[in-house]
Amino acid sequence: MKDNPFSLWVYLSQSPLLWLTVTLLVYASTDAVSLASRRHPLANPVLHAMWIIGAFLLVTGTSYTTYFAGAQFVHFLLGPATVALAVPLYENRRRVVSSIVPMLVALVAGSVTAVVSVVLLAELAGLPRDVVLSLAPKSVTAGVAMGIAESLHADPSLAAVAVILTGIMGAIIVTPLMNRTGVTDFRARGFAAGLAAHGIGTARAFQVDEIAGVFSGIAMSLNALVTSFLVPLAVTLLVR
Amino acid sequence: MLASLGLILLCQLIGEAVVRGLGLPLPGPVLGLLLLLILLLARDRFALLACGPLRNGGVETASKGLLAHLSLLFVPAGVGVVQKLDLLASHGVAIILVLALSVVVTLLATVLTFRLVSRLLRQQDAR
Fold this sequence. Notes:
heterodimer, A: mainly alpha, 2 domains, 13 helices, B: 127 residues, mainly alpha, 5 helices
């Protein structure tokens, strides 16, 4: 260590400990800023944590693979967190059962709109075919979208990036957009957030209102189901 | 706390196993969610099940702990954007615009359908 000040860095930068610590601390700070701004949509903690960590990796010349070796412990918890959505669903089951019909109709309308709109717009923008295919499942949660992209022989890592970008933009835009439409029903607002912007939309919905969060979680789970069936169908019909 | 986390993981594990085993086109954790929901509902009906993490709000507390920082869990995948800088340099603006427009259209289609249908149902009830 004394003879070479870089040896400590070389050791640490390869260990999961450093990158796990960086992920947690950067997120803790961006979340604190978000809280201090009273959860302003533009202070989205995921967005800011993402570019700060990304810039740090680029500056230190660290590969994403090395970073992910540490950050995977956080990434892994996405699965258990999905299971955990059962609890708010259980606690609010009466409200959920009483709005089952609007939920199911909105689910079909929303899922179809999500897939068809992104495929048509991407074709219109003249994006390459494999990009169009990777963008198609962007409204569902990361793990599911990657699986769908894989089955279409598209690029799963691009699909994951499209999912996160969609989630962040959805989470930023949902509150101002819904205020403008004048919809005050937090069941409907939450359901739309979860359907269009999966877990990041759901995290945002829980910040705004508990009922919105519950409906958002349901929308996210149901949309994962519907989109898995819908994307292959839409791609066959719409992609040249 | 430990038993509650274990129960959550067990639900996911069974979900993944069933999905893989039967080749179902749905994510394992979603099946795990259904399983935990069924367990919670069954617990209220059969007193026998109300033990371990299913007693005194054990699994409820653990789940709320996990969900409290749901956003954090998306950060590692989000940082993956550093691998796609070439693609974003060539098609970034188009991709962002396409995703932004699509998310706005999807939000509006969903929320307006939800409102429309629940309003229609309420009118029907009133009649």
